[in-house]
Amino acid sequence: MTGPALSVLRGARRALGTVAARVYLTGCVLLLGWALVAASDGSMAIVLPLFATLPASLVLLLLLPEGDAAFLLSMVLGALVNAMIIGWCARALRRGSTPDTAS
To answer: Which of 21, 53, 64, 76 is the S-S candidate for 83 at Cβ 3.0 to 4.6 Å?
Structure first.
């Protein structure tokens, strides 16, 4: 595999490899696990992981069809998108004014 697809995968791996992105993903997983355990009829616990993954999860929630699986998928994909953005920002801040020689 060569070309743009490889560079996109390499960029995603670099972004998700930062400490900030991994801490964010760990927090989202813990929140989602807590919400699934604590959720009962009439509980609003599932809203907290949704808030933690905004705005990407909200966009996906509006695009995907209704249902529990789509709701869970929007939170998982939203967390991944946000973690990639956090990782990209962390790499850009750490790099500072020096150019990235790896890309």
So the answer is: 21
- Pair of tokens at residue 49: 């992981």
Element (H, E) at 1: none
Residue 45 CA to residue 11 CA, distance in Å, equals 34
Q: Are 84 and 12 in contact (CB under 8 A)?
A: yes
Q: Which secondary-structure segment (H or E) carries 56?
A: helix 56-63
User: Are 45 and 38 contacting, i.e. CB atoms less than 8 angstroms apart?
Assistant: yes
Where does residue 33 rank: exposed (0-12), middle (13-18), buried (19+ CB within 10 A)?
exposed
What are the tens digits of pLDDT across the range 18-30? 899 999 999 999 9
- Do 75 and 89 touch, CB atoms closer than 8 A? no
